[in-house]
Give the backbone structure.
Amino acid sequence: MSSKRNIEDLRRAVAAAVGADIVAWDDATLRARSRDTWPLSLIRDDRGTLTTRPACVVSPATVADVQAVLRFANREGIAVAPFGGGSGVCGGFLPEDGAIVLDMGRMNRLLEVDETSLCARVQAGMMGDHFEAALEERGYSMGHFPQSIALSTVGGWVSTRAAGQFSTRYGSMEDMLLGLEVVLADGERLVIKPSPRRSAGPDLRHLFLGAEGTLGVVTELTARIFPRPESRRLCSFAFADFESGLEAIRNIVRVGWRPPVLRLYDAHESARHFGHWAEGDACFLLIVSEGPAALAAAETEACREICLSLQGTETGEAPVEHWMHERNNVPSLVDLVARGFVVDTIEVTADWAHVGQLYHDVIAAVGEVESLLLVSGHSSHSYAQGTNIYFTFVATPSERAAGEAKYLECWQRAMDATVRAGGSISHHHGIGRLRKPWMREEHGAGIEVMRAIKKALDPHGILNPGALLPDDA
Ligand SMILES: Cc1cc2nc3c(=O)[nH]c(=O)nc-3n(C[C@H](O)[C@H](O)[C@H](O)COP(=O)(O)OP(=O)(O)OC[C@H]3O[C@@H](n4cnc5c(N)ncnc54)[C@H](O)[C@@H]3O)c2cc1C
C-alpha cells in the first residue's frame, strides 16, 4: 500500500502530520528498525537479503503523538509497525517496505505506584529492567523476569503474552495485567480500567494480550506488583531421567505448592550447565521458594519430601546459585548466526497427560535433521494442568543458503510433532511470522473469529500487517 506513493512525499507528509522533531529516516535508523531478533531475520540481515526498509521511524512522546500517527496512517492506508525493544524472536516486528515504524522508546516513564492496592501504572515503552529497578527501589517487584528483561519493554510483554522465569508463583502477563490504554487504528484512545476482578462482559484486556501490534498500540498499562519477598530458599535435586523430574514437578504443583522457580533440565542441558555437580545422565530440578519466611520454609520442605519420595538426589543450593547468577547470560544469537550456526529455541506447552510424549517426539523429530549438533529441552513454567518445554537446537555451520532451509526444517519438524502430540504451538514467544502456518491447527474456527475482530478494529489493515494471522483467506 505504501509503495503507491513517492517515499519522500510520504516522509514529508508524516512529518507535517505528527511533527518533524519526532520523525527520522536516516539509513542507520531505518536499518536498526527493520527487524527484531528472529533468527531468520538475523540470517537474512547477515547475508544482505533483508532489504525491506520502513519509510520512517516515528518516536512518539505522548499518547497524542501516537493518535496523530495512526489517524494519518489510517486515512492514507499506510502500514504501521509498533516497536518495543525489538527482542521478539518470531518476526512479530518486520515492517514492510514503506511502513511507518512507531518506536515506543520515548514513552518510558513510571507514572504511579499504588502501595495500598499493589499496582503500578507505566508507559508502554519503559524497558523491563528499568521498570523492575524503579519498583525495587520502593520495596516492590513485578515478579516478571523474562531472560530478556534488559532487552524488552513492558508494552512488548503485553503484546507477546510474555512469561518470566518466576512465573510459576507470580504468573505471566495475562495474570499481571490489570488495566490498559491502547490507541486503535483510527486514532481512538481506549482505556480499560484496572480492577482486581470484575464480571462486566468479555474481558477486553485479552484482545490486546498477544495481539503483537495487530489490533492497537499499547501506550500505557497498570500491572500488579508484590512487596519484595521477606525470604528466599534454594534447593535442587538430580533425577535419573526427565520423566521422573516431570513427575516431581507435577506432584509439587498439583497439591498447591507454587515455588516461583521450578526448572527441570534434560540430561543434555544438565550436563552442559550443572555437570560440575553430578555425573552421567542426571536431570537437574532447580527450586526457588520465596515469600513470607514461614511459607518459603514450608514450601521448600514439602518440595524436598516429594522429590526424595520420587528418588531424587538432593544436590544443594549451589546449582541454583549458579543458575541465578548466569540466568540472563545467553550467547548472542547475532554472533552465532554470523558464524553460520543454525540455532534457535522453541517453547511449547502441553498438559501432564501429553507432555512426556511431546518431549520425546520433538527431540526425535528435530534429531533427524542432517548435521544437527544438538537438540535439548527443559521445563520452566508449570501449572497444575501441565507445563512447557523449551527446546534448543543447533546445527553445524553450513552453506548460508542451506542454513535458511535447515532452520525452517527444524521448526517444521518441531511444530508438526507438537501438534501431533496434542500440545500448543507456543508457550510465551508468540507467533510473529514464524508460527503462522500452524495457527489454524492451533485455533480451528477461532481463526475466522480473529479475522472478524481484526476487520472490525482495523478495517484498512494498517496495524502490523503480516504478523500473527495466517496468510490464507
Ligand atoms: C535473549 C532473549 C531472551 C528472551 N527471554 C524471554 C523470556 O524469558 N520470556 C519471554 O516471554 N520472552 C522472552 N524473549 C522474547 C522477547 O523478549 C519477548 O517476546 C518480549 O516480550 C518482546 O518485547 P519487546 O519490547 O522487545 O517487543 P518487540 O520485539 O519490539 O515487539 C514484539 C511484538 O509486539 C509488538 N509491539 C511492541 N510494542 C508494542 C506496543 N506498545 N503496542 C502494540 N504492539 C507492540 C511488535 O510490533 C511485535 O509484533 C526473549 C528474547 C531474547 C532475544
Notes: The first strand starts at residue 23 and ends at 24. The mean pLDDT is 95. Residues 36-37, 81-89, 92-93, 104, 124, 146-148, 151-153, 155-157, 159-160, 162-163, 212-213, 217-218, 330, 428-430, 464, 467 surround flavin-adenine dinucleotide (CB under 6 Å). The CA atoms of residues 56 and 221 lie 26 Å apart.
